Task: structure prediction
Amino acid sequence: MSLDKDTVEKIAHLARLQLNEQELQAYTDSLSQILGLIEQMNAVDTTGVAPMAHPQDTVLRLREDRIEETDQREKFQRISPATEAGLYLVPKVIE
Amino acid sequence: MIHTKTVAEQSAALRAGELSSTELTQACLERTEQHRELNAFITVDAERALAQAGVADERRTRGEAGPLTGVPIAQKDIFCTDGMLTTCGSRMLSNFTAPYDATVIRKFNEAGAVLLGKTNMDEFAMGSSNETSFFGPVKNPWQADAVPGGSSGGSAAAVTARLVPAATGTDTGGSIRQPAALCGITGLKPTYGRVSRYGMTAFASSLDQGGPMAQTAEDAALLLGVMAGFDPRDSTSMDKPVPDYVQSLNHDLKGLRIGLPEEYFGEGLNAEVATAVNAAIEVYRSLGAEVVRLSLPNSNLAVPCYYVLAPAEASSNLSRYDGVRYGYRAPEYTDLTDMYEKTRAQGFGAEVKRRIMIGTYALSAGYYDAYYLKAQKLRRLIAEDFRQAFEACDVIMGPTSPSTAFRLGEMTDDPVSMYLNDIYTIPVNLAGLPGMSIPAGFDSKGLPIGLQLIGQYFDEARLLNIAHRYQQVTDWHKRIPPGF
Result:
């Protein structure tokens, strides 16, 4: 199966990746090539096979609900591109 | 020459008081500086390393030293290290100083190991040649125009060039075993759930596993003993006791049943690699093992299956890089969406973007069943093949990689060919089994060849035993590239 440029543009937007015209063409080609590889999966009938999400098929553990973490806001925010008064700054969303 | 010694030998020298950790660390730092052309390291913090060495020396004086105390170890730059740059080979994290330690880092710290530096890698561990790193490719010490393999290429090159006696790697589709094979060292990918993934930057969470890369199986056993174990901070960590991996290294191999899957010796396998692998199996026969021919009928579907599951999980995992809380942010943008799109366009390299988009597509509305669910079903068939195979054998052997190290740039324009490098390693990750690569010869160009060993779940001790016995009667693992 091959993808068209419009689809790749849509995927790129869903993934929040800005592509220029040249990149769009290159990804349309290489993603189509990879989808060709992936579609070899269709050669096998998997009716009735249970999907496998975890190699040991374990279920997630539960833990006691108690506070273990300490407040490290300053340490964590020190590595942020932009903070102010303990808040992360992003471009204005609401006018 | 102390730098050519293994972890076990360096540990013995420290114990005997032949030298201090400070002297040993200094020697490793000098070699690392001397061989910067390999580009094996992203960060070397001499001050920090020497401080840790000083602490290790004091600890030894107090009689509290363990086997790794004072031994310099390199860490793949995917493990978060408190107060130290942790880049994952990406521009996105090129300014990221981790605010906490990964469990693996904490365990090495507690063992008293010295963190010599953080090794170069394919960006977010996506690659088989170390060419996708934002910090430039790593060179294979055996041949400067050849790739070291990937994604743990920096770790492989550092151990191969004896800049450091051992290192860590991570393996999602072959990223420990393939570079170990291409560089001629010993690498072990443990059973999924054996080593904590906490603080190990996620690529594909249901496949990622950290493990040791070393000169010998004995050293890999020493390192795995430190790395393995239950961690409540990793929801997929398995609560199972950690055996003494060193104690069982010398077990006899008489009667060992080696399974040889026909699919691992078919079309696409380089003839020189096949010859070396067959010769290694003959060595095992001489040690008392028997050979069982078998089939893993769905293994040809492993690569297509993997290129749905791994990118799908990656697209989800990498959505956290938004330029808000940490990491790179584009310098100019108009609004929030533009900020995300530019940050991610500039912060990620071409291969990472490619995989994010494949994953996004596979998970997008209307395609989930056809791709992700289908791949998860195939994953079960592939795991089931192994389960059946292990009814007839104790270990599966074959090549690690279809060829020896290829040239830098040779495959960068052809992603699908690059992906096929991992044809023999990927099925092991999908099944969640432990796998190893050990040096088993050289091709006519003088490039190393790796033998892959695949074990049953949590059978790392046996894999290490099988690898160790081979290394007792061969010397491939002792070869050092000329000039190092």
